[in-house]
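Ticket closed. Logging final result for Glycine betaine ABC transporter substrate-binding protein.
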Amino acid sequence: MKKVLYPLAAAALFSAATTAHAEDKSLVIGTNNWAENIAVANMWKIILEDKYDYDIELSDVGKNALYSGLANGDFDISLEIWLPTTDAPYLEPYKDRVEINGAWYEGTGLGVVVPTYVDIDTLDELGEHADDFAYQGSPTILGIDSGSSIAGLTDEAIDEYSLPLEQVNSSGPAMMAALDDAYSREEPIAVTLWSPHWAFAEYDLKYLEDPKNVYGDNETIYWFSRQNFTDDDPWLTQVLNEWHMDDDSLGTLMADIEKAGDPVEGAQTWIDDNQDLIDEWLAAGE
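Final structure:
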């Protein structure tokens, strides 16, 4: 005899299926060394482990390894992909083997940044005043690791604008230390930066205008995952798709981490102060 599924029973079963947590609560989050990436990864690790008994590993790797790792199933999710421009080259080889999910931040910025006390406003003017931006004796744009998207775009900008400067790549903290030192003495310095970043709350900075649009337009940050993750953990998928942050919420999270000098301590401070916002995200899975 054919079974009849009454509407209320069907609704209950559907609700249970869509809000159920994954049976296997172990989760590997692939991260890269950008301030906002470190911030949100530690935030979610604390929330999910403390409230929902997940066992989460954060695996910090370079961009190429991050994308190949998701495609190969070595990581379950990663919380930051900038589209349509910045991370498109990294995505392209794996676009059929990873899943792009919900957007959580809109209106990014990316480019060469100088302190506002510096009297130039465009990349062309940077070239005209290159000698003012000497670092260790040579006209320089200070950047982060050479494998990053922004490093590649900055190399393109140097070629496109025929800038008589070289890009010197180092870690994000080393670049910020150089910025802090120059800023404290009100000396000219040019660095590669992006928004969101805590530096814009700490210092008065400005992007140099990029009329040739090498760095692209404002973008959107999404989270992404290995294939079939959304089927394996529909509850977390719903929660992360509901997650949204703006300059205030993300900026204060990064500032708390910077102030604490520890991503776990800083993220915990922010979580304690923003439980109402977190509850809104988590309500999506109820």
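Residues 107 and 133 are 29 Å apart (CA to CA). No further action required.
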